[in-house]
Amino acid sequence: MSARRQDAHLPVRHALILAAGRGARLGEHTKLVPKPLLPLGAGTLLGRQLDQLEAHGVQRVTLIVGYRGDRIRSAVGKRRGALEVDFVRNPEWASSGSAWSLVRAAAALRGGEPVLLLHGDLAFDDALLARVLAEGQTATAVDRAWLPMTGDEVVAWTKDGALAGLRKGALDAEAENVGEFVGISRLEPAFAWAFVDYCVARTATDRTLDYEQPLLSEFVALGKESCRPVFVHGDFWRNVNYAEDLRDAEDRFGRRSADGGTGA
After folding, report:
1. In the chain, where are the structural domains located?
2. What is the bridge-based pairing of β-strands 154-159 and 178-187?
3. How far apart are CA 137 and CA 232, in angstroms?
4. Does domain 14-253 have CATH number 2.30.110.10?
5. Do residues 30 and 221 make contact, with C-beta atoms less than 8 angstroms apart?
6. Distance of alpha carbon 197 from alpha carbon 247, whole angstroms
7. CA geometry: angle at 193 spanning 188 and 197, to 5°?
8. What is the pTM assigned to this prediction?
């Protein structure tokens, strides 16, 4: 069955969250706790995301889990709210990347509906999420205030108003507008279906680049589907890769007390 073009203005009711990895760069912080369950504000990173998604009209979430996935399942099971949450397990989380997680959850991207794809280790302002959701086409958040600080930043660049490529810490010679890839994307049905098909085919023959960003870069370079950049304008966000990222997020959204519970 092939991807079908559908109404580009359908609201996003389904989100897919990548939450399989350990987050080894956080050291002791993730020795016992999976990164999405790190404390933040009144709850956790993941709990904040789920609350934000529900507040913005998302009705169903697919969580791709791996490292200590049982703890994530347990925490989400205790959450109050109307969100329908289902789980996909990536048993190879320790030796695979985010694109392999997408392959494991391919059915969620072939549902014929817009999908919000985001990373489970992100803390972000509501305004940033609202801006991406409001796009009537496939779009991804890009931060124009990008600064090379750790070398881990994934740089996005555009050409003729569309996403042209992604690369860690490097730029393309023909880059126009440049910024950091945030990790929050609205995928329209045809794009989602075609992209996950590309991930399936690509990882079947080569697992050396089984991450979302390099395969997305390859995919948009084919020119068959277009992705619009949504430039961040002062909205706060952190990809919590290091302890200082977590501290920045806590400064923005608050620190959870020691007896604040462990639920999502």
Report:
1. 14-253
2. antiparallel
3. 17
4. no
5. no
6. 38
7. 145
8. 0.90
Task: Tell me how far apart the alpha carbons of residues 216 and 227 are, in angstroms, rounded to a whole number.
Answer: 10
Tell me, letter by letter, the H, E, C secondary structure of 137-159.
CCEEEEECCCCCCCCCCEEEEEE
Tens place of pLDDT for every residue, the chain, 264 residues? Answer: 444 444 447 899 999 999 999 888 888 888 889 999 999 988 999 999 999 999 999 999 999 999 999 999 999 999 999 999 999 999 999 999 999 999 999 999 999 999 999 999 999 999 999 999 999 999 999 998 877 666 678 989 898 899 999 988 656 555 667 899 999 999 999 999 999 999 999 999 888 888 999 999 999 999 999 999 999 888 999 999 999 999 999 999 997 654 444 457
Structure tokens at 50: 């789920």
What's the CA gap between 234 and 219, in Å, rounded?
A: 29
Structure tokens at 229: 């950049």
Which of 69, 43, 80, 58 has its CA nearest to residue 13? Answer: 58
What is the residue whose two structure tokens read 């997408």? 102
Q: What does the DSSP 8-state code read for residue 42?
A: T
Q: What is the DSSP letter of 256?
A: P
What lies within 8 Å, CB to CB, of 152 at 6+ separation is 168, 169, 241
DSSP track, 52-114: HHHHTT--EEEEEE-TTHHHHHHHHHT--SS-EEEEEE-TTTTT--HHHHHHHTHHHHSSSS-
